[in-house]
Amino acid sequence: MKKAQVPHVSQIDPSEQEKLIESEKMAAMGGLVAGVSHEINTPLGVNIGNCSLLIELLAEVRRDFDDGKLDANQFDEFLNTAQDLTSSMLKNMQRASRLLSSFKRVAVKNTDEASKLETVDLAELVAEFVQTYNATSNNSIITFNTRIPPNVNVSTYPTVILQILAALTSNVIIHAFAPGQKQCEITISVAPAGDGYQLSFTDNGKGVAEDELKKLFEPFYTTKRGAGNAGLGLSIVYNMVKAVLHSDINYESAPGEGFSVSFKLHNIMEESTE
């Protein structure tokens, strides 16, 4: 199974390291904003064209009506065209709306809810996620296994961890199923790792080819764009793990062997407000 690790800043002078981290975060966000701008411009550009065409058609219908030349067939043709144009515009605006919603989740560090630092029991937190998913999901295509020892307490951002688990689960639903596969199994495990704990999220899906593996965490990379996917799911996970949990992402996969993501959870201290 092919293994990879998202590069991290080496252990150097703390002040210089902080500068490098901030520079990395700003560069990543700058690239993300540019990507969002490009992606939104596409549906907006189509809508501008559709609106211009609709205005021309309305003007033509008005002229024919005023001149007494508008018959039932012409009006019916106009209505059909107008309906097609407005339907297209609605779909494009919905696509832009979904993209903006995803982008808002990328900037999770700046939200009040995500900034709530708490000491949590990881087994209880993951159990809460699984229970909530099972209660709100209308399908049974995903089953969860958890392998987490009791009394594993960490000072961290529980909302962020829940969002990461939700994003990874959505990624499984969209991308992991092999042809003919009717159910996918997800295993969430926690194991001691140095001064913290390694959380692993593994599915038994179709896996990822080596040439795609290194692109997975890039914003807007998706193999199913035609299905309306913006390709932000795993980049959201990357941003949360790096910028909020101050950790690195490890991942491994191979065709037919599923996909696994892991990152370290350690005690995060309250940041000084001075």
Protein model, in words:
It is a single chain. By secondary structure, the protein is α+β, with helices and mostly antiparallel strands. It folds into two domains: 2-7 and 111-265, Heat Shock Protein 90, CATH 3.30.565; 39-106. The protein is 50% helix and 18% strand. It contains six helices and eight strands. The strands form two sheets. Strands 1-7-8-6-5-3 form a six-stranded mixed sheet. Strands 2-4 form a two-stranded antiparallel sheet. A hairpin with a 2-residue loop joins strand 5 (184-193) and strand 6 (196-203). It is elongated and about 85 Å long.
Observed structural traits:
274 residues, alpha+beta, Heat Shock Protein 90, 2 domains, two-stranded antiparallel ribbon, 6 helices, 8 strands, 50% helix, elongated
List the helices and strands and how they pair.
Elements: E1 2-5, H1 14-66, H2 72-106, E2 118-121, H3 122-136, E3 142-147, E4 153-156, H4 158-176, E5 184-193, E6 196-203, H5 210-213, H6 233-244, E7 249-253, E8 259-265
Parallel strand pairs: 3-5
Antiparallel strand pairs: 1-7, 2-4, 5-6, 6-8, 7-8
Number of strands: 8
The appropriate CATH architecture of the largest domain is: 2-Layer Sandwich
Which CATH class of the largest domain applies here? Alpha Beta
Terminus-to-terminus distance: 47 Å
